[in-house]
Amino acid sequence: MNRLILALIISCGLTACSNNGTKKSASIDVEQTQPQEQKDRVEVLYFHSKQRCATCMAIEKNAKEEVEAEFADELKNGTLVFRTIDISEPKNEAIAEKYEVTWSSLFISKWKAGKETYENLTEYAFANARTAPATFKNGVAEKVRTLLK
C-alpha cells in the first residue's frame, strides 16, 4: 500500500512539473552543438524554468552540493562542470531543444573526443532528491565517478 501511495505521489510530482523524460540516453556529434573543440569532460546539467516546486529546488540544491563536496578538484581543472540552465530564457532555447527538456530536468553528459553521450536522470531525481537526499546524492556521485573514469 505504501508503495502504491509513493508511486502516486511521484507520478503527481512529475505531472505537476511537466517533466519531459522522453530521452534516456543518446549520442550527439559535437559538430551539431559545439562549434569549437573542447576538452574531454563530464557535465552535470540541471534545467529549470521560472516556476519551481520544492522537489525541483531540492534536485538543484542536492546535486550541486554533492558535486562541489565530492569533486572540487575536477571542478577546478575543468574535467567536471556543473551548469544550472533556466530554460525560460531565450538564450537557453537551443540547449533545451537539444536535450528535449520542457521543465525541470537533470542530465549527466560525457564529452570524449568530440562526441557526447548523456543520461537523463530526471526520473531518479524526482523520486529521491527531496524525500531521500542521501540516496540521491550517492547516485549522482556514483554516476559522475563512473563517467570520469
Summarize the topology.
Blueprint: H1 2-16, E1 25-29, H2 30-33, E2 41-48, H3 54-70, H4 72-77, E3 80-86, H5 93-99, E4 105-112, E5 115-120, H6 122-128, H7 133-148
Parallel strand pairs: 2-3
Antiparallel strand pairs: 1-5, 2-4, 4-5
Description:
The chain has 149 residues and is α+β, with helices and mostly antiparallel strands. It has one domain: Glutaredoxin (3-Layer(aba) Sandwich). Helix content is 48%, strand content 23%. The chain has a 5-stranded mixed beta sheet with strand order 1-5-4-2-3. β4 and β5 form a beta hairpin. α3 crosses α7 (133-148). The radius of gyration is 15 Å and the shape is globular. The chain starts with a helix and ends with a helix. The model is unreliable at 18-36 (pLDDT under 50).
Domain tally: 1
Structural class based on helices, strands and sheet pairing: alpha+beta
Helical amount = 40-55%
The CATH architecture term is 3-Layer(aba) Sandwich
CATH superfamily assignment?
A: Glutaredoxin
Give the beta-strand count.
Answer: 5
Count of helices?
7
CATH class: Alpha Beta
Strand percentage, roughly?
A: 15-25%
> In angstroms, what separates the terminal alpha carbons?
41 Å
From the spread of the alpha carbons, the general shape counts as: globular
CATH topology grouping: Glutaredoxin
Question: Which labels suit this protein?
Answer:
149 residues, alpha+beta, Glutaredoxin, five-stranded mixed sheet, 7 helices, 48% helix, globular
Report a brief summary of the structure.
This protein is α+β, with helices and mostly antiparallel strands. The protein contains 7 helices and 5 strands; from the N terminus they run αβαβααβαββαα. It has a 5-stranded mixed sheet.
